[in-house]
Amino acid sequence: MNKGHISVQSENIFPIIKQFLYSDQDIFLRELVSNAVDAIQKLKTLSRKGEFKGSTEDLRIKIEIDPDKKTLTISDQGLGMTEEEVKKYLNQMALSSANDFLDKYKDEGTGIIGHFGLGFYSSFMVAKKVEVVTKSWQKDAKAVKWICEGEPEYMIEDATRDQVGTDVILHIEGEDEEYLEERTISDLLEKYCKFLPVPIQFGTKEVPVETATDESTDEAEDKAKEVETEEVPNIINNTHPLWKKNPTDLNDQDYLDFYDELYPYSDQPLFWIHLNIDFPFHLTGVLYFPKIHNQLEVQKNKIHLYSNQVYVTDEVKEIVPEFLTLLHGVIDSPDIPLNVSRSALQSDRNVKKITGYITKKVADKLKELYNTDREQYEAKWEDIGVFIKYGMISDEKFYDRVKDIVLLKSTEGEYHTIDAYLDKIKDSQTDKNDVRVVIYTFHKDAQDSYVTAAQDYGYDVLLLDQVLDNHFIQTVEQKWDKVRFVRVDSETVDQLVAKDEEKETALSEKEQEKIKGIFKDVLSLDDHRLEIRPLPVDAAPVQIVKPEFMRRMEDMQRMQSGQLPGQGLGMHQIVINGNHPLIAQKLNNMRSEEKKVDFTKYLYNLALLNQNMLNGKALTDFVKQSLDYANS
Ligand SMILES: Nc1ncnc2c1ncn2[C@@H]1O[C@H](COP(=O)(O)OP(=O)(O)OP(=O)(O)O)[C@@H](O)[C@H]1O
């Protein structure tokens, strides 16, 4: 037996490991299994180089719990370690052999995971004592056992192990005993190891074996087949996940099945992108565009980040631009540094390149869909549109890539690109300052009378009813020259697109003052909220409009408090149609003060109703008054 001292800077390294190195102690299992994978991959490399002569068929990792001995063991059939190596690699923290090995075999595509040099010690986050029994692949190597009880002292002694490989035995006690439970370990394996490239066995499972019964017996027809079960090793991982395969070997169903494996019981994704690049960095993965149900609750944190098939995190904010976190799927890159702080990650050169690459790939895929199948693209627009608009608002580069494939939907259900749309409305909706005025509604039904009035006036009305449309409008206004968006109820129809036309009015100035006076008195309104205009004869007699800038401010406030932009009383203006017969003749010629008051209220309430702004007692009174009028 041999005693020694682990060479670390501080005597108290273990408490530090426990508290600071990994905020999530569950990752000890990931670290140990990754080491086991590395050990097997290294042995395969040695075999390919002809240095290791034994078989490398079916090398696997085994995880076992012994509840009586209170141990959790991770065994591998990898290359093992000699006594010198144990001393070198396990005792000198941060002196990981991965660098030595990678240096030596760098052209071999070794697929090695570990490079932090501290992974092994994470086992002390849950174990009071760790034993390593290992036998190296090297000729005449003797098995050795390393024992450490969480102190800087360790012991090395001779051991017996027939096969080449390593067992890491964790002795677990007290509050950490949950790691001796099958459920806990199987959940951790599912989370971190589901797609590791080497088979991992955890216990056994029963699988059905179909056996035909003897058909000559009388009961043969009743029970032609009988299901029996047999016990087989329970392999918990899929060693060839879809993203590692060649896209040309895969069909749509493969991608859909994999989506189902990642997100069981979800709706089918709309489409997907297979990422695969070797230079200037390594990255593979599959990103899916999900179907969006509720625009306010888009699910983020659905992209899983892997490094050489080891699950790392689903916090990918620093690697994927914010708007793309709406996507689902897997990104796997050994070139994303995992041992640096999140803020350092953002400024890492590789990460920047990766971000750019993913953004470009997504934009390319969207363009491809637009160019090859516009019909499908339009059909999926409701979902795709959210990504595209979010991307355009938040990412300049993405904006440039997709600005020609963003679609505007008219209330008639037609889709146009922005340029095509601006061209379409050029003649009818260019105002006196040569600005193209895009008229839109946020809700076709709720604003039906305004939409119909605008259409009757010869205007086209867009439907902008998505959560981000307010921001999107501002982005387009900033980027496109001489374009302004106005909501259909922001002005009376004649003023939506300001022209230099003098309109005829049926009322004299004196009569106008009189009518204004009536409204002011009856409704107790300020002068500046009231206006008489020469509107078309068939336009509503009284209208409520919400100037665009005021409404935008209100909408912003609502968005900040988490509500949808929409109606509500808020600031508004009352426009009286001086040309409407009910104003120009009926009200103008009314004698009875009482009737004037009633009729003015009636017309005003009608306008409120048209804006969905009438409710409660005011609505009840209005209905009653309407019935009285109908009866008179
Ligand atoms: N199961 C094993 N079989 C063979 N060698 C091992 C095994 N586990 C650990 N080692 C050796 O010990 C070294 C240190 O392991 P450790 O987990 O601390 O660091 P690493 O795997 O190199 O990097 P990382 O911190 O990323 O895990 C490894 O590089 C390897 O040489």
Automatic annotation (TrEMBL):
This is Chaperone protein HtpG. The gene is htpG. The keyword Repeat does not apply. Pfam families: HATPase_c_3, HSP90. Belongs to the heat shock protein 90 family. Residues 209-229 are annotated as: Disordered. It comes from the Bacteria. SUPFAM superfamilies: ATPase domain of HSP90 chaperone/DNA topoisomerase II/histidine kinase (SSF55874), HSP90 C-terminal domain (SSF110942), Ribosomal protein S5 domain 2-like (SSF54211). Residues 212-221 have a biased composition (Acidic residues). InterPro entries: HATPase_C_sf, HSP90_C, Hsp90_fam, Hsp90_N, Ribosomal_Su5_D2-typ_SF. ATP binds at E31, N35, D76, M81, T166, R342. Keywords: ATP-binding, Chaperone, Cytoplasm, Nucleotide-binding, Stress response. GO terms for molecular function: ATP binding; ATP hydrolysis activity; ATP-dependent protein folding chaperone; unfolded protein binding. PANTHER family: HEAT SHOCK PROTEIN 90 FAMILY MEMBER.
